[in-house]
Amino acid sequence: MKHEIEFIINGQNMQFTVDSNQTLLEVIREELGLTGAKYGCSTGECGACSVLFNGEVVNACMVLAPEAAGAEIITVEGLAEEDELHPLQKSFIDHHGVQCGYCAPGMLISAKALLSRTSRPHEEEIREALVGNLCRCGAYADIIKSIQVASRARR
Amino acid sequence: MNAFDYIRPQSLEEAGRYLTSHAHVKLLGGGNTLLLNIKKGLEAPEIVLDVKHLPGLSDVRYHHNQGLKLGAAVKLQHLAAGLEIRRHYPLLHQTAQKLASPQVRNRATIGGTLAWASSVSELAAPMLCYDAVCYVWSPRGKRTIPLSEFYVGDGRTALARDEIITHVHLPAFPTRTYGVYQRQTVRHDGRRMIAAVAVLAIRKQQALTHWRIAVLGVDDRPKRIPEAEELLQGAPSFEEVEQALALVQERIHPQDVEYARADYRRVVLQSLLRHGIMEVIQHLQGSRS
Ligand SMILES: Cc1cc2nc3c(=O)[nH]c(=O)nc-3n(C[C@H](O)[C@H](O)[C@H](O)COP(=O)(O)OP(=O)(O)OC[C@H]3O[C@@H](n4cnc5c(N)ncnc54)[C@H](O)[C@@H]3O)c2cc1C
């Protein structure tokens, strides 16, 4: 079954025709060409495909495309403003939060969701917020540090 | 994924028409179990009915006499963060906070989670302790199912294939309760559970009453052990606690899994439960009335 859907992604209004059994991740990557969100496990475990869905972090591989009708979605591409990287992105670069980089978009999205609730999270809160994001390089220590520094630096 | 038609019904009646006219219809909540099953080829519905947007299913209402009414489409994240939950049903709050990940909690619904009748379904533990009742609608009528009768074993529920959980009701619980949720899992996010327990009691003058013990991962369903709860009424002695623990061992039937043998699951459960009961006793007896 085809669905005409409309949603807002990274601030832009989009109209699309999607199939019932397409995932939101497929649409974001293959139709829109926004390849920041990654295919990982495709079972909701690794968090590489994390996006903000109406302000909340979800795994885009576990959302059906037609469910996104009317939603507001932010991917890692939507974090930067104009040419200015988001403070979290800068901090990931400065503090080596990116090793192979595959998990980074998902990590950034989870971190962004955390910072919009809690401006100065404790290490434990950061760890809890990242429970759904796996890093196979094991760069967790630097990822946590990157988030901590970014949260302190925020105005 | 196999082909199916995604449909977002506007009313229960509309949902009911699909349930009646088609044989392979599945309800969609947060999709954490359903989409996984479809991806793995374990289920191949013709129609996926998204029931999250049905009117009233996202309502949360608390009343100090009537208790808590939770719509079936309310997200687990609300249980982890909602103030009324934290204050009046702390064990529910405590369990939900640890359940899976933010990504899962932001999508998973109460209806879909209860209908996922795995013996390791963590939400079941506090819900059983608080005497939750499922309110169910079908084109044939409405009925209520106490959660204690909802799980019928081997991952199945008492729901008929055309029934939709519309909400869950938790009766008002006296204050001065204390509850503990303890789990032993291989993974930090709660997956690969060896065993888990929820323990709850209420302090009335000097006595500890309303004991609740719910166990996960050690039987073919999440369940309470009422005979053991009975033994703890009053102010249980160490002997009575040990008797209750022994009784629980008689009532469980753990299975071997690749990461834990059945006898190990028994030992782990025993230890979690002893710890849980002692913590509840210490906390409630230590608090001033
Ligand atoms: C990565 C990952 C990690 C997880 N970790 C944990 C964990 O640590 N602890 C834990 O306990 N669980 C865990 N889970 C399981 C998770 O909690 C459940 O998959 C989820 O809560 C199910 O809810 P849902 O709304 O997503 O259900 P869905 O997948 O949408 O539905 C599940 C079932 O319920 C039926 N259903 C949906 N809504 C209704 C309704 N209103 N009435 C009747 N039937 C309905 C569906 O048809 C389906 O059969 C994990 C899952 C994933 C993917």
Kindly describe this structure.
The complex is a heterodimer of chains A (155) and B (289). Chain A is an alpha+beta fold and 155 residues long. Chain A has two domains: 2-78, Roll (Ubiquitin-like (UB roll)), CATH 3.10.20.30; 87-153, [2Fe-2S]-binding domain (DNA polymerase, domain 1), CATH 1.10.150. Chain A contains five helices and five strands; from the N terminus they run ββαβββαααα. Chain A has helices spanning 24-31, 87-94, 104-117, 123-129, 140-153; strands at residues 2-9, 12-19, 50-53, 56-59, 72-74. In chain A, strands 2-1-5-3-4 form a five-stranded mixed beta sheet, covered by helices on one side. In chain A, strand 1 (2-9) and strand 2 form a beta hairpin. In chain A, helix 2 (87-94) packs across helix 5 (140-153). The radius of gyration of chain A is 15 Å and the shape is globular. Chain A starts with a strand and ends with a helix. Chain B has helices at 12-21, 34-39, 76-81, 83-88, 90-98, 102-105, 110-115, 124-129, 147-150, 226-232, 238-251, 262-286; strands at residues 5-7, 25-28, 47-50, 60-63, 67-71, 133-138, 141-146, 151-153, 156-157, 164-170, 177-185, 193-204, 207-216, 223-224. Chain B is α+β, with helices and mostly antiparallel strands. In chain B, helix 10 (226-232) packs antiparallel against helix 11 (238-251) and helix 11 packs antiparallel against helix 12. Chain B has twelve helices and 14 strands. Classes of the chains: A alpha+beta (155), B alpha+beta (289). Chains A and B meet through strand 4 of A and strand 1, helix 2 and helix 6 of B. Residues 26-34, 36, 51, 72, 99-100, 104, 107-109, 111-113, 115-116, 121-122, 159, 164-165, 189-191 of chain B line the site of flavin-adenine dinucleotide.
